[in-house]
Amino acid sequence: MALVRAGDVELDCERSGSGPPLLLIMGMSGTALHWGEPFLSALRRDFEVIVYDHRGVGASTRLSGPVTIAQLAADASALLSALELESADVVGISMGGMIAQELALAHPEQVRTLTLGCTYCGGPESTQPQPGVLQGLAEAMMSGDRTRALRAGWEINVSQEMAGDEDAYEAFLAIAQQRAVAVPVVLAQLQACTAHDTSTRLAELSVPTLVIHGTEDQLLPVENGRQIASLIAGSGLEILEATGHMFVWEHPERSAELVRRHAAVPA
Prior knowledge:
This protein is an alpha/beta fold. About 40% of the residues lie in helices and about 20% in strands.
């Protein structure tokens, strides 16, 4: 990873692989490591993969005060410019999908294709998680018991089947231990997500778009993926059965293939 000046911040960024540029935008409380090596390895065969940590995360510029999804999208735009890339295929998951929406709306010339995973667009028609889901996660995070918080985060992000995979959980723990995200940063990101609303603007998008969502997503139920696809003319929709929020962990090869096919990269 290397620090790159992107507008008024420095973002910790890594470029790897070869091929057309692919910008990956991570979600709330995530780091560049949370994409998972299996998914990244599969992408590097076809793309120059660009991952980075948001402001407030890792070695990127510290976060002071609130932040908005539009600001984070401006960071992503500035990063592409700093890397001297006119455009890139863009993948955003969860909060990263919200950022990717704002990026494509504000700077469509920088987005060659758009893949939106496990995300939502806000507005009155969006589907919220069950009250107990967020309540349980919040209680675990504020308990002061880091082990409890990490376990709760794991179980809410994956399908019921994968939640019991202890090897996968150990890999998740290793990432959390290597690069933790401070609770105030997570809360600032949560506030940004709560205020996010592109629902009345998505019809403006003409960027080729693919929406991916799992049927067992507890954080952002699958109805949100269907809603986004219905609002963007000509977009594709891929529903992953029995799959949770972190679909790139549960199906790394299939997820990478969906991105590759959408970007029309020759096999």
